[in-house]
Known about the structure:
Order of helices and strands: EHHEEEHEHEE
Oligomer: single chain
Helix content: 10-25%
Subcellular location: Cytoplasm
Pathway: Aromatic compound metabolism; melatonin biosynthesis; melatonin from serotonin: step 1/2
CATH topology: Aminopeptidase
GO molecular function: aralkylamine N-acetyltransferase activity; arylamine N-acetyltransferase activity
Region (Disordered): 1-20
Strand order of the largest sheet: 1-2-3-4-5-7-6
Number of helices: 4
Largest sheet: 7 strands, mixed
Radius of gyration: 17 Å
Strand content: 15-25%
CATH superfamily: Gcn5-related N-acetyltransferase (GNAT)
CATH architecture: 3-Layer(aba) Sandwich
Family: Belongs to the acetyltransferase family. AANAT subfamily.
CATH class: Alpha Beta
Amino acid sequence: MSTQSTHPPKPEAPRLPPGIPESLSCQRRHTLPASEFRCLTPEDAVSAFEIEREAFISVLGVCPLYLDEIRHFLTLCPELSLGWFEEGCLVAFIIGSLWDKERLMQESLTLHRSGGHIAHLHVLAVHRAFRQQGRGPILLWRYLHHLGSQPAVRRAALMCEDALVPFYERFSFHAVGPCAITVGSLTFTELHCSLRGHPFLRRNSGC
């Protein structure tokens, strides 16, 4: 998605909100779209980790994925990720991998099962300067649409704290019970979402 003008003078590029760290800054070019959704690459790993670290460490004390794990998944299965970029800078993202069992297990935190049919959503994170703007729901909706276009992926699965269950239920996820995965003293609920016949597949979301 991009907006361009064919008549001079060219409009000034919109400014990002304050608070973008230096490592997320980038040179602006007239060819950069104002807003773009695309799969991530290993080159996006550092930017993704900085967003994730700020979002999760202060709240949970741990990250769903650390830098090496982000690089690992973006190398093995970049098609199961989706990033939201503003002026070429990453502001929100989701990273997933494939899993081949009915329920998530401790190994699913680090493994990508290429023959699996379940997309395990490891992390959804939004940069602090872009929160409270409805970006998380928009990104998740687009991500589910993106998964729905991949014939091998039949279901999405994730784990979250109980307080976040109502958020994911808005997107047709349903709780299947306590998750077998624990992180330190933290426990989670496991949720699944069928990608067959989901309403997002009947809508043009612009992906």
